[in-house]
Design goal:
Length: 365
């Protein structure tokens, strides 16, 4: 059979990544036909390590603009398709094998392949937080990166929604203040922020627990009426959490409910409502929202952040608590057992099991 494999350029921007770059490049062995590395000012052994993998290394003077750096990297690619990764990303063995199959069998009509990006994990290594990113694109389309910070790839044309996952491992070298500093510099220069800029600036303020300014910026973002629906939902969740931090319960409830203006209820917000009413000792209301979370079907076309626990074990664990407080111990036990199927070693689940077996007289049966 003829080999219909596409050719792939891996394009990366790096700086001081000596601790992670080899791990990343080893994990994609066999996938890229060329590796393009753009260094934005390393002072460690990053370049020395990278030279073992490629001689296509370019310097780029850092100008506080991630899109500019990524576009420069893309401009140096020469293969059919471009794959992009960060230095602290990897492909797990299974995903690498699936990617190699994709390379041989990709529909030639496809201009874009998006993939889940796994960002957080529990103690068992199960992904707890993910979103989708456009990850592999046809070079001839000249797609461009947009945005100085939290940049995105502007694409169009036929898209393949792949199940191949990119795993974010993180790095001890991460500068948690970098993005916030860039936004603050832009604000000081008097730049007009787009709705997307406002959203990600608010996220940086939120992450740094600058709650009041985060609230103001999220509210300004929502007032534009121009936000992507997933960003609107995320802003509602972050606003609710900011008000929870500040002890403003009415405002917390207001923004949980506001999420329903943008989309049908998601499990994440049902769990937020359940937790709100559980904390208020309104157990019937708490149970209602947790139960609804268990009945929802996770949207398959959502590109926004997904908290897996809210779609699997967490509402069952919390239903156990609500039903126990209501004296409905058999229902409590039933939902704890469902949670146990997802999390058999969870200490809270095991505690509930022992406690409820005692209450129900099941301990010696």
């Amino acid at each position: 059979m003829p080999d219909n494999s596409i050719s792939i350029s891996l394009c990366m921007i790096v700086r001081n990544e000596e601790a992670t770059i080899a791990r990343c490049l080893d994990s994609v062995k066999g996938i890229p036909d060329e590796i393009v590395i753009v260094d934005t000012g390393s002072s460690d052994k990053t370049k020395e390590i990278v030279r073992k993998y490629t001689d296509r290394i370019f310097d780029f003077t850092w100008i506080d603009d991630f899109a500019a750096a990524r576009n420069f990297a893309f401009s140096n690619a020469t293969m059919d398709y471009i794959l992009w990764l960060d230095a602290d990303d990897v492909l797990a063995d299974f995903d690498r094998a699936q990617f190699l199959k994709l390379k041989k069998n990709l529909d030639p009509l496809m201009d874009v392949v998006n993939m889940p990006y796994l960002l957080a994990f529990d103690q068992s290594g199960v992904a707890t937080f993910s979103l989708r990113r456009n990850r592999l694109v046809r070079r001839s389309k000249n797609f461009r990166w947009i945005g100085a910070v939290h940049e995105y790839l502007e694409v169009y044309g036929p898209v393949l929604n792949s199940d191949i996952c990119v795993t974010h491992k993180g790095s001890a070298n991460d500068d948690s203040n970098r993005n916030l500093k860039i936004y603050e510099k832009r604000k000081a220069r008097g730049e007009l922020f787009s709705p997307r800029d406002l959203f990600y600036y608010a996220n940086e303020l939120f992450d740094h627990k600058i709650n009041k300014r985060a609230i103001e910026t999220y509210q300004e973002f929502l007032k534009t009426g121009q936000g992507w629906v997933e960003d609107n939902l995320s802003a509602c969740g972050k606003l609710a959490e900011c008000f929870q931090r500040l002890g403003e319960k009415d405002k917390e409830l207001e923004y949980i409910l506001k999420s329903f203006e943008y989309a049908t209820p998601r499990a994440e917000f049902c769990c937020r409502l359940g937790f709100y009413f559980l904390g208020a000792k309104q157990y019937e209301k708490g149970a209602f929202w947790y139960k609804l979370a268990t009945q929802l079907e996770k949207p398959t076309d959502s590109w926004g952040p997904v908290i897996e626990a809210c779609w699997t074990w967490l509402p069952h664990l919390q239903l156990c608590v609500c039903y126990d407080r209501l004296g409905k111990h058999e229902l409590a036990y039933e939902h704890n057992e469902i949670a146990r199927k997802y999390r058999p070693e969870n200490t809270q689940v095991l505690y509930n099991k022992n406690y409820l077996e005692g209450v129900l007289g099941l301990a010696n049966k």
